[in-house]
Request: fold
Amino acid sequence: MKTLSQILTIGGDGMVGSYIDFGKKFNRAELDVTDGQAVLSAVKNHRSKTIIHLAALTDLDYCEKNPAQAYLVNSVGTYNVALAARAVGAKLVYVSTAGIFDGLKKGLYRESDPGRPQNHYGRSKYLGELVIQSLLKDYIIARACWMFGGGPKKDKKFVAKIIAQFQKPAIKALDDCWGSPTYAKDLVGALKKLIAKDARGLYHLAGKGRGSRCDVAKLIVETLKQKVPVIPVGSSHFKLPAKRVANEALTSKINLMRPWQKALVDYLKTEWKPVLEKTKLLS
Ligand SMILES: NC(=O)c1ccc[n+]([C@@H]2O[C@H](COP(=O)([O-])OP(=O)(O)OC[C@H]3O[C@@H](n4cnc5c(N)ncnc54)[C@H](OP(=O)(O)O)[C@@H]3O)[C@@H](O)[C@H]2O)c1
Reply:
């Protein structure tokens, strides 16, 4: 069994990293994955047998407008981390995304389905997967979808964006984009279990089931007892730089994640409600 205290996490200051309460964590200022020499030295100095690599540019629209930077961090950065892992014989844990799929499948995507990303973020992350698979034997690639977590301090994604609109007359959300919303805390819990049993390979670790963006927005409003209406709109409504595909829902060959609705309610009640009540944004 691997000891959690020996794990090295890179890119540990973000949403997922906020649930890593073990081992050594580097933030971007301490270790930039685009600096291959620095990554190699840090990994050699730490002598870790397991590296969790979370460093990435995760804003789809920013990546679309700055593709060179997206590939530098998400693909070349991952190459640097994979080379360092290979140099010291460490297991590499990489969090990838449902955004590597084309969105055309009618059902849920399996681990065995082929990748065909449709935007620069997806392509840059998929290249990261390919690099790891070509350089290493001991790796875990865990694909998540529509991540939420981190609470008011770290959540920059959909949940925070919906809560920020509570005072508006209405909230518009897509009803033609489907995914498997994933609680970052559950993802870290599942990764800990996989690392403990020395698992290897590609796994889907997303909230169980599927929902539309509109379903997610409605559950947020209902759980936090708001009256603002949620209006379903089609994906042509928002003109965004990065293409969003219709289906990013995932299923898995393993059973480590709970239904996304349960996880979302848990997240809202434990990490958002107490803070919103204190700031009087919730009555
Ligand atoms: N969020 C999602 O919906 C989602 C879904 C599927 C998969 N993922 C994957 O999950 C992983 C963790 O994402 P997250 O949601 O926790 O995102 P996040 O909150 O944006 O965290 C990413 C972290 O990477 C750091 N970083 C950026 N560029 C770096 C560089 N050059 N060197 C070192 N660190 C760098 C960031 O540092 P700064 O804060 O200083 O910029 C940030 O702390 C990523 O690999 C992401 O692709 C995310």
About this structure: The mean pLDDT is 95. The two ends are 47 Å apart (CA to CA). Residues 5 and 221 are 39 Å apart (CA to CA).
